[in-house]
Structure formats: C-alpha cells, structure tokens
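Hi R.,

Here's the chain you asked about this morning:
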Amino acid sequence: MWDIRYKNGIQLPQIGWCLDVQKPAERAIISHAHADHCARHKEIVCTTATARLMRARMPGKRVEHALPFGQTEQLTSDTTITLHPAGHIFGSALCLLEHQTHGRLLYTGDFKLHAGLSAEPCATPRADVLIMETTFGLPRYVFPSVEEVRLAIVQFCQEAIAAHCTPVLYAYGLGKSQELLCVLGQAGLPVMLHAETFRLTEVCRQLALALPGYREFSANELPGHVVICPPQSRNAAFLRKIPTPRTAMVSGWALDRSTIYRHRCDAAFPLSDHADFPELLRFVELVQPKRVLTLHGFAADFARHLRSIGVDAWAISENNQLELPLSGPPAPSPAL
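And the predicted structure, written out as tokens:
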C-alpha cells in the first residue's frame, strides 16, 4: 500500500517525491502556482503554465519537468505520472501516480468541477487512493449557479458606473482575477488591473490563455472602468487613489455573512475556484477510490461525512493526525 505522510504537504517516501509542500524540497510535484502550494524546490514536475507562472512569482534556479495534460511519463523506475486538468486556475493539475505494486494514487491539489472561463475543465480519472482538498467540506457550502453569480457581479458593476462610482472587485491576482476579466469582458465592461494582477495576467496571455482586453490601473483614466485588485483595507494607499469606490469581495467565502464585515466591502459574491460540498461528493463518486484522504479546510468533517455513507475516509492534515492511522487498519475516530 502507499506510504503517505503529511508534513508541510504530502510526502511519498516510497518514491522520493512530495506533493505541494510549502518548504523547499529536493523533488516536488506542483499542482498549481498559488503561493501556498509551492516553494523553492530543487526539482519540480508541473504543467507548462504552472512552471512559467512559478518563474514569474518565485524566480530562481531549479530543474523543471513541464508535462502536457494527459501525457504519461516515467517518474521513477516503478512509478508513472500523468497530469490532468483540475479546473482550479489556468494550468492547475490533478496528479495521477501509478505504482507497479501500490496501484493508482490521485492527488487533487485545489480543484473544482463547475466550468470556468479561464481554467481547463476538470478531469475525473479513476484511482485506488484519493487525496483531495476539502476547503468547503461542510454541507452548508453550496454555491448558487455560476451564471447567477456572474450576472450579479456584472449588475453590481453596471450600477456603480451609472452612479458615477468606480466598481472595485477584490480577487486574488492569479486565477480569480482572470476569471473575472473574462466575465466582465463578455458584458463589454472595460477593466483596469492592479499592477501585480496585470503582471500575472500578462504571463497568462503570453501562454495563450484567451482573454478580453484590459489595461493596467491608471487613476487619471479611471471613469467608466471596473478595477480588479487583491483584497485591500479601507485605508490602503491603492484604494485612496479611487475617489468614489464601490467595493466587492469575490470568493466562495461570500456564503458566510461575515465576509462583508471582515473585508469592510459593499458587497460579496460567491464565485469560487474551489469545489463546493456537492461537488466534493460528486468527485469522490466519479473517481471511485477505495480510500480517501482529506486535507485543508473542513478535512475532518468531510472525512467523517464520507465514513457515514460507507467510504473509507480519513483526514491527513496536521490538525487531524489523531484521526488517521498511517499504517494498519483504520482506528476509531476520537470525538472532536
């Protein structure tokens, strides 16, 4: 069976590789280029887009093995690797490892099943063992339809512009910002990007991601534009450059009523690049694993729910080590 350990990410000592570890390692497989999933490793395997985005965000020397989606390569003498689209952000990948003895292991990184405008559609390969992220792993996290949320965002922006205000959408610079750019482009709304968001969007454009027109933020030519920027405090220097902003947080966490108050914004929209609770369940159903290991977000809760419906599932992230026997048969889960 697979020897799977968790320490700053997933460790696979049997093959000498790790997955999405957050501290520098000798050899690491990277699911995508968000900062919490990569570090300055000596040797990496990832998609071409992730390799290029990592260079932009984390310069330095390393050995890169950039694989196209769906192409199976030999990783070690007894293990192959295949990267499949994860649907999370542009270039994000599920990692399928197949060992001659231990069988098929699928690691998701961050993923979503619902279709986006700026990420490749998520695949669902079969596997014996599934390691999956569970950011929204509680039953209360059920997103409204994507079309409904997109229309609400466009309406918010149109109403702000009609009132001679500037709509400001808070979104992470890589992934959500490009998704919003596509949504606003379809509605014919002109967009300005925060400098760092602009830089990362330029990398995506150079990698042939189809994007509508955009420009870098300029306070002198602001009227009539939507601004996309990373989350800001009300007193941030960047926000002070905008005379009459109307701000909105764009995140799956917008389902929590506290989001507007925590970010001190005028609105919040639940457009997410993660799977919600029903999609997490659907993914398990499609992959048909014999065992599921969960991490991130509500890992213990989701694993407990899977066990209640007959799936062998255990949380592996550090806060849930007592729930997971790393060898031998599963032990009873302690009360949390």
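The first helix runs from residue 48 to 57.

Let me know if you need anything else.
M.
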